[in-house]
Every structure is written in C-alpha cells, then in structure tokens.
Amino acid sequence: MIQVNNLSKSFDEIQAVNDIGFTIEKGEIFGLLGPNGAGKSTTINMLSTILQSDSGTILIDDIDVKTNSKACKKLIGVVPQEISLYEDLSAYDNLLFWGKLYDIPPKKLKENINTILDLIGLSDRKKDLIKTYSGGMKRRINIAAAILHQPKVLFMDEPTVGIDPQSRNHIFEVIETLNEQGMTIIYTTHYMEEVERLCERIAIIDSGKIITQGTQTELQNLTNVKETIELEFESLSTNTAQNFKEKISHDAVQIDNKISIASNVKNLPGIITLCNELEMEIKDLTFKKANLEAIFLSLTGKQLRD
Ligand SMILES: Nc1ncnc2c1ncn2[C@@H]1O[C@H](COP(=O)(O)OP(=O)(O)OP(=O)(O)O)[C@@H](O)[C@H]1O
Ligand SMILES: [Mg+2]
Description:
14 strands; Rossmann fold; 28% strand; Alpha-Beta Plaits; binds adenosine-5'-triphosphate; binds magnesium ion; four-stranded antiparallel beta sheet; 2 domains; alpha/beta
C-alpha cells in the first residue's frame, strides 16, 4: 500500500529525516516509534503531501506522492499532532467545515459526519462548542475530521498526547474498528506501550534514521536482551556503569542516576554484592521483561522518553 525509499529531508543544518525506507501492507497498523525530535512528524508530513522531500520516493497505492499529490490526497487522511479545530464552532460545524474541503456532496457529508460521530461516541455532544470539550474529546474530533472522506490510508501523528487513559483506550478502539473496516493506518508515538498494543509491525526511528524495523517478535529476537534490571541511586559518579559492564554484563547503560543492565534475574545477587562493594545504596530496583523500551535502549544507549 505504501512504499518509501531513500527518503530524506533537512531543515538548514538539521537532517530531520536521513535516508529512510519501509513498506506498509494494505490493512496494516504500522507503528513509527521514536523519541522527541526523531523525525516522526517530518516523515508523516512528507508521506501526506504536507511537506516536500529533498530526495527519495513515496508511493501510495502505486501513486507517486511527489508527481501526483492531488490523487494521493484523495486516498489519505491525516490526524495532525496539534489539534486543528475551531474552538468557537460546535463539533458538528467543525466537521462540516473540514468535510467541505474534500468536495463531498452535502447529503453524503452529513451522513458521514453522523456515522463518524457515532463511531467516536460523541453524537450526543455534537452541538456543543469545541471549547467546552475535554482534551480527549477534542482528540477524537481531530480524528473524525481526518476520516470524513473515508480515506484508504490514515496517518496519525501522536493522536493521544496529553489525554487520560480512558480517552486513550477509546481512541485505540476507534483505530481498531477503522482497521477492521479495511483502513491502513500509520501511527506515530513515543509510547512503546501504544505500538505494542496496536501495531503488528514497527519501525523504530531515532535522529532521522530507522534503526530497526519488523514485527514485534522479530524486534524481540534482534537483541539478546530478554530482561533488564534497572537500579536507581541517590547520585552516581560518571563512569560507574563500567564496573557493571566488567563484572555483570557488557550491556550496562548509565542514564542520570540510573543504571540499566541487560541481565537475567539470576545475576541479581551478583549485582547487589557489587553495589555493596562499591558502597552504593540502591534507592529503587526494577526488573523488566524485554520490551521495545529495552530494545531501544540496547540499540541507542538512550531512553525513549526524556
Ligand atoms: N519546520 C522546521 N524547521 C526547522 N527544523 C525543523 C522543522 N521541523 C522539524 N524540525 C527539526 O527536525 C527534527 C525532527 O523533527 P520532527 O518534528 O520530525 O520530530 P518528531 O519525531 O515528530 O518529534 P516529537 O515527538 O517531538 O513530535 C528536529 O530536530 C526538529 O527540530
Ligand atoms: Mg512530532
């Protein structure tokens, strides 16, 4: 459904997207996971014709985005990272406004708006002004505005930022329903729990580069990290992790006052002994099964979240 090859984009000195490529099959929910500034929005904006790439190719349903952006626009819907709604209009009038931009015949547009309001669970609030909505409700209308023309492909750029878990779940259910109805979805986030819940295939992006991609199982198998032990201390001197690298596991990373060690739980007594030898008092200790966060850490030496 989507083929991206050698895609790049710079803003002056900043190489926001650096030679990335991926393929998305029809009917997939594809996750683009990466920390702040990784290049997720820049990628989505190029795929959705909002931004011109410097180089590379993007095909959507075999149509070239660069040379035939008009045809592409009909196929795609975009949920932008920032909410783009008129606060002083009702939800219904916002959707009427956005729908008119798509050349949908008025009768069909009204039908679509009502169907979508039902889908997102906001039919009973449709006459209320957006400024009276909660953050989660605005996010839902932001999604509705992107699907009024029943696109084949939906780009969603961090659609759950700043909302409570209940609204987030509601949005996940909407995404899953749209996907069951056949929509191909590209979902960006810096929350690994979200891609773990929604996406079968994932690309992890950092500093403009895709550092790895595949199914969740393929990503798990890429690294030897199966379990991570995370230790937190009151304070740490700069190269303390070196001791853990030498004595416990070469995969030990120090971030602020924490040390993350890719290590089986069997090494726990050794870790505690080493802390005692170094006279380091453990403030907190967490044991994690391998997840995308641990994989990201082992590939980049950084944490996904700030
Ligand atoms: N219009 C622009 N002008 C200059 N630099 C930009 C512009 N848009 C993005 N950048 C830079 O490109 C890099 C990638 O930004 P981008 O917005 O794509 O990241 P992101 O992964 O979406 O981050 P976030 O999770 O914070 O939304 C960043 O260093 C950013 O500062
Ligand atoms: Mg972004």
